[in-house]
Amino acid sequence: MEGVGVLKRFVVAIVAAIGVVIPLMAGPAAASGDLNGPFKTSGRWITDAQGRVFITSGINMVYKRSPYLPSVIGFSDDDAQFLADNGFDSVRLGLNWKAAEPQPGVYDDAYLNGLKQTAQMLADHGITTMLDFHQDQFNQKYNGQGFPDWATIDHGFWNWPVIGFGTDYIFNFALKRAFDSFWFNEPGPGGVGLQERFAAMWGHVASIFADTPGLLGYDLMNEPMPGSEIFTCFFNACPKSTAGLSAAQDKAAKAIRTASPEGIVFYEPFSTSNGGFLWVITGPAPDVNNRALSFHSYCLMANATKTQEGCDWSDQLGVDMAAMNARAAGSALILSEWGAMDDIGIINSHIDVAARNMIGQQEWAYCGCDDPTTADLQGQALVNLPSLPPTGTNVRWQKLKGLAVPHPRLVAGTPTKYGIDRGTGVFTLNYNTAKVSGGSFNQGTSVIAVPAINYPDGYVATVTGGVVTSADNALELTVKANPGVSKVTVKVAPR
């Protein structure tokens, strides 16, 4: 919506004129050439075109109201620049099936190209895009969103009780029946199975996004739920629903691969696993290359208390279960959603658990964005209003400080340990020069993102087994391994 963009530019000009802008974090945006892809998987790792390990620090940007385009609420270049300047290198960008395919077999390419323009804008700032079919509680009929009306088949079951987002997944009869219809691949309009429609939609989307620079991949479905089997999941792992989820993911993945050989296929378990429980192996068949498990972390106690108290064990359990399932499936993995609250304990804990386990992560969310399906509309935001500049009181600075810590963006070898000491601010990365796909790097260059917000006076980088090749205090600290070395250690300390 051009009107929002004009208003935003006008506000920027006025604020600048009166001299009260709080500057964005110092330092240039990330070099877009480093993250143009194609991205692939090798065992548990995601890799770039050179075979370096890519460990993202990202964020979610999902606009859940019609017309489902972040650009209409002002998400634009200055937001992308703000993210890049603060070390973010991926956005999980929401795709709405209802908007993409408003009628069976009829696609809205104007909508899809609008999303593609946002992905292109992000790539221009060195930020990759994970395209995410984002459903929450299926459809507006159940106070949710995501699935098209024509794919919502509940056979007239009672649309009750209506308690609220999340709880209705468990109790609402019609909502659970609608999920059943999808998992059991019931015929929809024209007698075509709902899963076939779903797969065809993804194939069409992939044909449009295939040439998008910086495309990380496709997240097939956000937080699927079992349907009527949900209560039996505690006893027998929901066999019918699980089989239906795997079948739907496999069909969609193969449709994507038919349309494009590029882009990682991210698949999700049932969201009953979000607190570390009720994990079952799902996903595309092994003959679909470049697969990755996309999992979430939401402690049940944190949902109630909005603090991290008592949740560390649950968060680690979730990571352990995800790693076990990914290993069994031969997939990479990423923590693609967590947070959704203001508590700095939740922020720091998840950044640290992702680092301890060497897993890329994407926090929820960039903005509240009038979200109709959330437990904490305002607490989830990093930036309050994308329609205004990401400066001053429009930014949750404490949250940003917790998120924008150093991370190893691209590792020319195999990471063995990394993380920040929150007491001293010292970040350490250890890696060996063996490629995760086999062989080794010879004098390979690694990239560590070092956002300025936690190093206001700059930083000092010390390297064992290599040399720093970037300028002092650069946002992208680049390290080149010495000839013949097998291990490299990088330390970043505040001045």
- Overall tally of domains: 2
CATH architecture of the largest domain: Alpha-Beta Barrel
Find the CATH superfamily of the largest domain.
Answer: Glycosidases
Structural class: alpha/beta
How would you summarize this macromolecular structure in one to three sentences?
This protein is α/β, with parallel strands linked by helices and 495 residues long. The protein has helices at residues 2-17, 77-85, 97-100, 109-124, 167-171, 173-183, 194-209, 233-236, 239-259, 300-305, 312-329, 344-356, 397-403, and strands at residues 40-42, 45-47, 53-54, 57-61, 90-95, 128-133, 215-219, 264-267, 291-297, 332-338, 361-363, 407-411, 414-420, 427-432, 445-449, 459-464, 466-468, 476-481, 487-494.
Folded structure, characterized:
With 495 residues, the chain is α/β, with parallel strands linked by helices. The protein folds into two domains: 2-404, TIM Barrel, CATH 3.20.20.80; 406-495, Golgi alpha-mannosidase II (Immunoglobulin-like, Sandwich), CATH 2.60.40. Helix content is 29%, strand content 20%. It has 13 helices and 19 strands. It has helices at 2-17, 77-85, 97-100, 109-124, 167-171, 173-183, 194-209, 233-236, 239-259, 300-305, 312-329, 344-356, 397-403, and strands at residues 40-42, 45-47, 53-54, 57-61, 90-95, 128-133, 215-219, 264-267, 291-297, 332-338, 361-363, 407-411, 414-420, 427-432, 445-449, 459-464, 466-468, 476-481, 487-494. The strands form four sheets. Strands 10-9-8-7-6-5-4-11 form an eight-stranded parallel sheet. A five-stranded antiparallel sheet has the order 3-12-15-18-17, with no helix packed on it. Strands 13-14-19-16 form a four-stranded antiparallel sheet. Strand 17 (466-468) and strand 18 (476-481) form a beta hairpin. Helix 7 (194-209) packs parallel to helix 9, helix 11 packs parallel to helix 12 and helix 12 packs parallel to helix 13 (397-403). The longest helix is centred in the middle third of the chain and has 21 residues, at 239-259.
